[in-house]
């Protein structure tokens, strides 16, 4: 009898031991799988970001061209499409004509801030694509950069290239209230993109955003279509306290004609100034390469510069408190040191050809005025 009891006890112990071992094994397995899954999801949609400030080792660009008049002062780049931490956002953007590199490797947050500093850029207006399915990507990236490099990037919430992926106004309001002070602007609202066919700057949904911009002192950056003058004028009239910020190509200079009438907007001169996209601007499926651009601009630097000065100098002089300098970088190769160096050199050469009394306004002071920086 005693032997039977011992056998039963041993069996019970074995069963309990196996059950406990199984339970622990399942918990460990689920934990590992869960962590792996979370890591994968995080890499896809962009999770929390950690950026540790590092010493800047990017060398200053050595000038390639002899521009007699050359601006040596500080710059603010008022137009940069900031890489995303979400591979999903990057993929969707590329499928809709907007190449959006992922924030990693050579174009990590640290490297980008260092690159801008090497160009003498004190601040950069960075547009973070913010989708309703991956809004944490933009928020976490902006907050991590702000923590490591406070004040270096002026963070904008940029709607994605497909309107159906937009965060609605109530969602934008929540982001602004939950992350007070992080975001200084909304845009670029790229109304020329295929995903915004038929959408106008004065659409009711956007007007709700402009109301939020008024409440939270946001700059609103818009790239309107050629035929949207009436809509642009309507929002300038209806929202006189909102600072609007426009840019466009050669067919949108009508915006500049509105400057005497409306005082609540600025205009960014950027990619069009240096022909960053050449004639492929109208067909973004034909991707310009780094080599094509460098070959073109190195062979035509002075003629492109002369044309830019001829076209813009008088306009800037007449409206010297309304224009800003920018680059409109967004492709991965736009952040290559060779390309960035050429963009800086061209910008400084162009500014050097402006009247001395105008140069600082265009280079950085007008951007500071938008931010209401003393």
Your description of this structure?
The protein has two domains: 1-45; 69-370, TIM Barrel, CATH 3.20.20. It has helices at residues 2-45, 87-95, 109-118, 135-148, 169-178, 204-216, 229-238, 254-257, 271-274, 290-318, 337-352, 356-370, and strands at residues 75-81, 121-129, 153-158, 183-190, 219-223, 243-246, 265-269, 323-325. The chain has 374 residues and is α/β, with parallel strands linked by helices. It has an eight-stranded parallel beta sheet. It has twelve helices and eight strands. α8 links the parallel β6 (243-246) and β7 (265-269).
Fold blueprint:
Blueprint: H1 2-45, E1 75-81, H2 87-95, H3 109-118, E2 121-129, H4 135-148, E3 153-158, H5 169-178, E4 183-190, H6 204-216, E5 219-223, H7 229-238, E6 243-246, H8 254-257, E7 265-269, H9 271-274, H10 290-318, E8 323-325, H11 337-352, H12 356-370
Parallel strand pairs: 1-2, 2-3, 3-4, 4-5, 5-6, 6-7, 7-8
Helix pairs in contact: 5-6, 10-11
